[in-house]
Amino acid sequence: GFHPELTGRENIYLNGSILGMSRAEISKKFDEIVAFAEVAKFLDTPVKRYSSGMYVRLAFAVAAHLEPEILIVDEVLAVGDHEFQKKCLGKMGDVAAGGRTVLFVSHNMPAVQALCSRIVVMSSGRVNYDGAVADGIASHMRTAETAESGDCDLTTRPGRTGGRTAAMQRVRLRDQSGRVTSSFGSGESLTVEVLLNSDSPIHPVLGVVFKDRYGTSLFGNNNRVVPGYRCDNPFTRGVIRFHLSAIPLQPGTYCLDLYLGNDYHDIDVILDAVELHVHSTDMFGSGKLPPAAAGPFLVPATWSAYPEL
Predict the structure, then answer these.
(1) Are residues 239 and 196 in contact, defined by beta-carbon separation less than 8 angstroms?
(2) CA 223 → CA 164, 229, 255, 261, 287, distances in Å?
(3) pTM for the full predicted model
């Protein structure tokens, strides 16, 4: 509903008319639209001179303020700065709270999780899922998986160091429902399950190290250094699991190094044993995550502030 040769001011009235609003109704909302879009300085400039961000700001402002029965928003959050995205989310929430329908099309999972009460997942023009938001996001991420499935044979896996015995036979990554997958949301639980076959009975120790895509070690742990997790009875064949209650990582792809040993030394070591894909979730309940520039970790925290007396 925008014409590139018309100014921002003219396009507000044109778009409003297309949406069925009278000139008086548009004029009543005009100042709110301009203030929301933050394009007052360029109101009388043809929109063909606008940047993509300015164009989308004005288009969204017009659509959101003219009280539509159904507001269709397609990836508007992909353009604009953080503050504008925050305003968009707030405005869409207001529209929905007013009893009107918002159809929000986006790949921004935290925003979808914060804003939507129902989700439809589509692929190649077909509906893959229609229902609860959390399950829909999980369905979307499963179809988006492109690398390993989260179930990996380790017997011939490259990365085994120093000609060590192939005591680790298989690794599986399980989500909070026990499903084997390589895709997890930030803040969700992760279980690393290793099937082992040792030459002699051991009290198994499993070490897991998380690395970024550049091969930098981010964090890791093992049950040799954490008390209370020693297997009472040694065995040669079985399973040992490493459980993380909340993955503290930004969205991205990570590699896991695996170390299997006994009480005293490592028996089998595999570098880059399995890939882990972390996708964004509404971990903090705000629809947002810290910027990637803040670092790879997502750490819950609390704040307090007191005015000076």
Answers:
(1) yes
(2) 21, 6, 20, 10, 35
(3) 0.59
Token pair recorded at residue 229:
């997790």
pLDDT means over runs of 10, the chain (309 residues): 90 88 90 90 92 85 82 72 77 86 83 87 85 82 58 87 85 93 93 95 95 87 91 92 95 93 91 91 88 88 88
- The CA radius of gyration of the chain, in Å to the nearest whole number, is 26
Q: Which H or E element spans position 271?
A: strand 266-279
In angstroms, the first-to-last Cα distance of the chain is 54
- The secondary structure of 188-233 as a DSSP string is --EEEEEEEEEEEEE--EEEEEEE-TT--EEEEEETTTSTT---SS
d(CA 94, CA 78): 20
- The two three-digit tokens of residue 151, written as one number: 């179930």
